[in-house]
Amino acid sequence: MLPIFMENYFTYRNANVRFTTKGKGPLVVLLHGFLEDISIWNRVNKYLSSNYQVACLDLPGHGKTECMGYVHSMELMADVVLELMRQLNKRKCHLVGHSMGGYVALAFAEQYPDKVTSLTLACSNARADKSEKKQDRTRAIQLVKTKKELFVEQAIPILFNTAIKSNTRAINKVKEIAHNTSIQGTIAAIAGMRDRFEREIVLKFAPYPILIVAGEKDSIIPLDWLQEQALIAENCTLEIIPDIGHMPFYESPLLFESILKRFIDRV
Ligand code: MLT
Fold first, then answer.
1. How many CB atoms neighbour CB 52 within 10 A?
2. Which residues have C-beta within 8 Å of that of residue 79, sequence separation ≥ 6?
3. How many helices (H) and strands (E) does the chain have?
4. Mutation choice for ligand 1 from 151, 226, 246, CB with most ligand atoms inside 8 A
5. pTM above the 0.90 mark?
6. According to the model, what pLDDT value does residue 1 have?
7. Vertex 34, ends 33 and 35: CA angle to 5°?
8. pLDDT in the model for residue 6
9. pLDDT computed for residue 3 by the predictor
10. Residue 2 has what pLDDT?
C-alpha cells in the first residue's frame, strides 16, 4: 500500500526505519500493531496533524522497516521510538499504541517516563502472556515458518467483529499489509510478544494521564481485562467502543478519532 504522507528513513542498528511526520505542535507518536504498518493510521494522522506534529513509524520487520534480528523485543522496539524522537529533536511525546504497538509504548514508558506526555493503549494491555498463550505463540512461529500465507488468512479476520459485513474491505486491506510482512519480521514480532514482561506497574505509577480504548467485541484483548487494568492506574480514562473488535481505527474511525483527540487536547 502506498503511503499518503511523505516517507523518511533513519538507520538504527544497521537497519532502515521508515517513518512519516506531518503537522506542527506537540509530538504525537502512533505505533501500529502486529502485521500492520504506518498506513493503518492514515485517517488518524490526517485528523490530528492540524493541531499536532504526528509521527508514525513502521516497527522493526514491518512495512518498510528492516529486521534487526530474530527476536524483536518490546524494549528493542521502544529504543527505535526513542531514536525517532532524537531524529525529530523532541523531548516528549503523546504515545499511542495499537495492540503490539501498545506493548511497545509500555516498554518505552517504563524506561523513559519523563519522555511521555500521555499514553494511549488502543486495544492493548499491560499483562504478559499466560503460559497457554506463550505455547500458542511458539506454535504460531512454527506455522509461519512453512505456511505464512495460511497464518495470515486465519489471523486477520478474527481481529474484526466479523458479524459486521462492511468490515470486509478493511479485512482485505490488513491482509495485504500482513502478506507483505516478511517471515522473519512476523516471527521476530511473535517471539517478542511471547517473551514480553508484565507492565501493570507502569500503569500504577504513571505520572502522566492514560487512555485505554477497548473494543466491546475484541477477541484478542477482552474487554474485562481492560476494565480491570483501568482500575490500576490512578489517572486513567477507559473508553469502550460498542460493537467493534480489535481494530477501532477501521471499525469505528470517527468515534476513535474523536475519543483520541479529546483526550490528547485535554492533557
Ligand atoms: C496485535 O494486534 O498487535 C496482536 O494481535 C497482539 C497480540 O497478539 O497480543
1. 21
2. 12
3. 10, 8
4. 246
5. yes
6. 55
7. 115
8. 86
9. 61
10. 55
Looking at the structure of the chain, the number of domains it has is 1
Distance 99 CA to ligand 1 centre (A): 5
Ranges of residues in the chain whose predicted pLDDT is under 70: 1-3
Cβ of 140 closer than 6 Å to ligand 1, yes or no, is no
∠ CA 170-7-96, rounded to 5°: 60
- 3 part of a folded domain: no
For a ligand 1 pocket test, name from 72, 99, 250 the mutation site with the most ligand atoms within 8 angstroms of its C-beta. 99
pLDDT at 165: 83
Atom of ligand 1 nearest to the CA of 190: 8
Backbone angles phi, psi at 9, to 5 degrees: -135, 145
Write the CATH number for 165: 3.40.50.1820
Q: Compute the distance between CA of residue 240 and CA of residue 243 in angstroms, rounded to an integer.
A: 9
Nearest protein Cα to ligand 1, atom 5: 34
Q: Distance between CA 106 and CA 265 in Å, rounded?
A: 21
Determine the residue type at 109.
Answer: A
Residue 2: inside a domain: no
Residue of 59, 100, 190, 247 best suited for mutating to test ligand 1, as the one with most atoms within 8 Å of CB = 100
Side chain identity at 245, as an amino acid letter? G
The confidence score (pLDDT) of residue 166 equals 87
Residue 43 lies in a domain: yes
Q: Show the domain range for 78.
A: 8-266
